[in-house]
Fold these 3 entries.
Entry 1:
Amino acid sequence: MCAVLIVLLTGPRILIALWYLIAPRRWESAFDSAVWPILGFIFFPWTTLIFVLIAPEGNVDGGDWLWLALGFMADFFGSLGGGILRQRSPAY
């Protein structure tokens, strides 16, 4: 259980770092400044990865908003999930 949680928390951040090292021009064309990818790395890693995947030129079209929403929900509900895991139900 702990290993799964560690992979879910660090996995997208490791992938962001590796992908940036492999294809920095894609990241530079997706974002206007370095502030947004850094903030995405810290707070919304899944959303940042999906944005670079679907919008290499920085433009999001029609159905791409669905993918961004899914990435945002993964980040948002993933951060809330830690509190749920800490709650213990009484043993019967």
Entry 2:
Amino acid sequence: MIIALAGQKGGSGKTTVAIAVSAELYARKKRVLLVDADPQGSVRTWGAVAAENNLETPTIVAMASNLYQPGQLPALAAGYEHTVIDCPPRHGDIQRAAMMVSDLVVLPCGPSAVDAWAVAESVELINEARKLKPTLQAVVLITRKVARTTIGKQARDALQAAGLPILGTELGFRVPYQEAPAAGLGVAQYAPKDPAAVEVRALVDELLSLTNPSGPKKKRSAHG
């Protein structure tokens, strides 16, 4: 499975989700490759923090818009069970390259209707990629949802117009999502009993069910 965390809008949680998902897969004893395709290098910084604290992480590599070329990511990913790519916002060339090697594109989206409207630009990139790779799957993930508000429902309603499936799992606006990377850990490993950990585990289950329909059914999603 190769998953790209993409989206033209910044601040939607791509890096946070990429780290959380890859760390959870790694905790499940999977061979995981985490690709930092964002020039900002936040994933690499997370890996450096983990190393300073003697914590194990998935294999982390940096790649750019040439990652789809022969001998690059496709060759490297063959040695891993799962690959997660953290894409930068506003770098269409890198996002297109990531989509061309991915099985699944996840578009994290904030909780407001305004965030949902911004997804349309990312959908255009996905449609372009599908002309060359018709099998490419793409889904939307609602992030930073505030519990007991109507904002999340408004975002879900607005996202319907994008024409992409919306994951049942939603990630809440929770402190561990901010604290875990600074500790060099994934969210589910940093605060294993927190609702954020429940959400991340549910998200990984749902992603696995999408890329392996014959495998175990996903567990009930956490909506916080």
Entry 3:
Amino acid sequence: MVVPDAIKVEMMVNGVSHVAVVEARKTLADYLREDCSTTGVHLGCEQGACGACTILLDGVAVRSCLLFAVQARGADVTTVEGLVNPDGTLSVVQEAFRDCHGLQCGFCTPGFVVTVTALLSETTDLDVDVIRRELAGNLCRCTGYAKIIEAIQAVVDGKE
């Protein structure tokens, strides 16, 4: 089958090289889910408002539903699956979310974990007000945010 406006896309996803020919209009979120099998990238609003599709693009947290796959050519992409430790154990942030019960249905959790990981790579000087402000772009319909904030505070305080 000939794909109209097909473009070759190459990028590193969670440390593995991925190459595909995609339609120019294919979002990065769809590319990651469909072509790279990184199903931790969730699609909620598909408008960048919910944060469920947050990934690290060259180390920066971005909404993958707002980018086309072709815009990430040559990039280093990390999804929630790529945040695990080299030995396969959970990252500190993932452990904190688990241990502090910072999730319920889990749909929003990957976006929160990626967002928090990026935030903690920049600073650990976080209080509750800063944490709330930094998480304003991630929506959760189940938890009420209290346990999510508790999980982040646990990491900041070195309890995880």
